[in-house]
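dude i think i finally got it to work??
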Amino acid sequence: MADENENTNTNTILSGEPAASAVTSEPVVTGQPETQTKPEPAAAFDFGKMVGAEGALAENWREGLPESIRGEKCLDSIKTIGTLAQSYVHAQHAIGSNKVAIPGENSTPEEWAEFYKACGRPENAEGYKHDGVQLPEGITLDQNQVAEFRKFAFEHGMNQKTFEAALAFDVQRCAKMQEAAKAAHDAEYTETLSKLRTEFGGRFDSVVAQCNKAMETFGLTEVLREKGLLNNYTIIKALAGIGERIGESKLKGGEGQPVSGDPSARLAEIQGNPDDPYYRKDHPAHNARVAEVNGLLAAMAKAGKK
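look at this
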């Protein structure tokens, strides 16, 4: 009994053959398989039909191009294969030897120099010219400052056109500043003249004459001229007060006092300065200067000088 049971177990569990119930000839899934439809392949573009007689391109020639560039407007004028080739050649010539990379943040000084050269910078700072810069009346170029500007322009890659434009702009700026300064000077002169005439009335001419003689006596004329204070009301009034207190007879060139120094030299000094009050009838010191010139001429005549 024991042997029979053992054989039975061996045949069914360890035999290596599948049990009868595990074997089937039918598929697990019944029914007909689904039908899968494959897409029709796209018709290939016929490049053989793209070019016609004498190189003419077919109407649909762009269909053979990548989709991303088919609609480019620049292709509208391309009608023949010759035109297409010619456009490419012209594009290459346009790039040509002038092709230069635009420097970036990490570019070397040599790369920047190459870029500046391609943009028209001269070989050196002395290569900049300013012949085309028009100078307004009364404006002159300081050549030392021009030399400094040339260095600046070269270091910052300016071409000739930009250099001249920048220099012309600065010239116009200086001209406007000069005009503004002259306008301010004239306005101050007019205001000062009005105040002095109002304050001193009939004594105006004598007071201004005393003022000028005080400046000359103490050597203040050139200093005040350099500082632009000859029209300053406060300065003129102070000097006039000094002149009044000292007394005209005690000042340089006063009435009844011989003219000191060489009268001919003093006369040449006055007549050689076109801005001297002697030539400006509206200047507060004009009458005093005329009197001084007359005194100089009298002194020269007395000394026998012509």
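Residues 185-302 form one domain.
im so relieved honestly
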